Structure formats: C-alpha cells, structure tokens
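Onboarding guide, step 5: your first structure request.
Type a short instruction followed by the sequence, for example:

Predict the 3D structure of this protein.
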Amino acid sequence: MARLRFAFAPAVLLAVLLGGGACASSKSSSPSPSSASADAPGVPPVPAPAPAKKKKDTGIKILRGVVVEREREAPGEGGSNFQGTGSYYLIFEVHEGEATARYRYPVTQQQWFRYPEGSPVRITLRNNFLQDIKPDTGS
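The system replies with structure tokens like these:
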C-alpha cells in the first residue's frame, strides 16, 4: 500500500501545479480597476509612466592643456589588482575662455611616463571620458 502511495505522489503533485497555474493565468470576466475608473464619469484617467530618459551624448571635445600633476596608486589601492602595477592618473589644467578647469583621468603606465609635469598636451574627450592624449605641438 505504501509503495502505491509514493508512486502516485509525483503525478498528483504535477496535476496540482498544472491546474493551479492554469487558474492563475486565466482571465476573469470582471473589469479591471484601471478600466473601470477610466469609464467612470468624473474620474481622471491614470497617466502613463514617463518613458526612460536616454543619456545625452555630450559629443567629442578636443582640449589643449598642460599636465600639472601625476598620481600613482600602489597595487591594491583604489580597487586596483594586487598583482598589477597599480593605477596611474594624469591631472590636466585646461583654459577654456576665461575659465580654468582641472581634469583627472586614469591613464596607462606608458602614458604616465610619457607625459611628465609641464608637458603640453591635446586631450580628446568623448562623453567626458578620456579618449586620447597627444603631445601639443602648438600648431
């Protein structure tokens, strides 16, 4: 008798799950609350959610400036890998009209050694991220 009971258990469980899923997914004949309120006189309709905003593409900017400082973090600092070489940053000072701006961007080890303090550079920014660094020849 016990053997027969365990043999039917998976079949009964499957029938309950399938039957319960079918009931949960079937539509009822009563109107939904949102459609009832839209048909009711004097009740304003529920506004649709606003569409998701896209990030604005700020485009490409080419700026001329000078490397004013170089920073280096040891391996393991600032989220860098313990086995790596650490993180390297260049700080640029750029004149835009009458304003002076300072930018700090992560760079490669090779770029960090290539551009010491005082180096005139032309930096290319895309969406405010450093895209390229080149020496500024003044032309």
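Each response can be followed by summary notes, for example: The mean pLDDT is 77.
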